[in-house]
Amino acid sequence: MSDLRYKLVNERNISSLELGSQALSECMKELTSAQDALENTLESAVERMTLFTKFENTSRETNAILKEVNETKQKIGSSRSKSSRLTTASTTSTARQRRLNLEEELATLKAKMHMAGKKEELDEANRKALENLDEIRLQLQKEETRVKEEIQNATKRFQIAEELAEKKARIDACKKFEEEVPNADNYVRENTNAAESTPPNDPKLTPELCLLNPSTPEFVPNAVPSISTNQQDTIPPVIEKIVTNPVLNAPSLVQAQLDVISKLLEVQNQNRLPLPEPGIFNGDPLQFPIWLKAFETLIEGRAINPAERLHFLGKYVTGEAKELIKGFMLLDGEDAYQKAKEMLSKRFGDSFAVAAAF
Asked: Where is the composition biased (Low complexity) (predicted)?
């Protein structure tokens, strides 16, 4: 390319210019083949783009030199002769120029097609990468939702278990107190009957009188006023028992009565509290074991009548669970209650149903 440019400046020989032009055309063809082979070996799109840019600049520079050579040849031919050789040279130059233009356009189109294919490959790779990112983001969102639901379910189960434990402790305390109250009543009743049936002169009640001085006058307490005959007629039987029966004033009996009164007040205060309930089951298999345990403890243990149990069973279920046992609500007897309970256990207490709920 430099040699041909030198000839254009210093030499005005048409033959020399034609030889240089032909040599440059051959070099350009070899360069095009080498560029195609090298481009197939490159993997990076950036390197391919750089190679194509250099090749395109070289091609344009070569075409410009060849065009300048043709123009110079035309000028030289017109100055030497206006004969038939000028016509022949002009025709040849025009054909070569057209050929060069066509080759330039062809090279440009090839380069554009090649780069369009590379751009399409890059776009496809970017699209796949974006799809993978969307899938990963969706999986992360699903996992986050699942973990939050597990935390919420665990919190609910813990709250229900805590409430059940608290209510069970209250029920056990009430039962224990109810078992102790009859014993206290029997104790008071037995002591009262014994005091009334024991004669006043029973030696068991006055064992220490033998230790007293016989000559000592009888002690009369100042705090007890004398009661006239008319007043004695108006004394109620209870007061009369307290005065005439000194056994009732014993400290142990008084303490027992106070204990009984305290426990009765405690029971009365507990009865004012609302009764614990098992909650309403809505068909969630994860909540069924907890709900069933609460129902058996709070309802089934109190309701002895099978009809009452069946009524409460229908009251504390809703949704799909209520539809499942609706047919048993019209029946009576223990058999209907047991069958309704078995239907709920088969439907919501099955291990496969619980696993599917997760």
From this structure: 78-95
Measured distance CA(336)–CA(332) in Å, rounded: 6
CA 117 from centroid of its chain's CA atoms: 46
Q: Which amino acid belongs to residue 118?
A: K
Q: How many residues does the chain have?
A: 358
Contacts from 318-321 at CB under 8 Å and sequence distance 24+? 318/280, 318/281, 318/282, 318/283, 319/282, 319/283, 320/283, 321/281, 321/282, 321/283, 321/347, 321/348
Query: What per-residue confidence (pLDDT) applies to 140?
Result: 92
End-to-end CA, the chain: 78
The DSSP bridge partners found for residue 317 are: 281
pLDDT digits (tens, 9 = 90+) for 123-138: 999 999 998 998 899 9
Residue pair 69/12 in contact by the 8 Å Cβ criterion:
no
The Cα 29–Cα 38 span in angstroms is 14
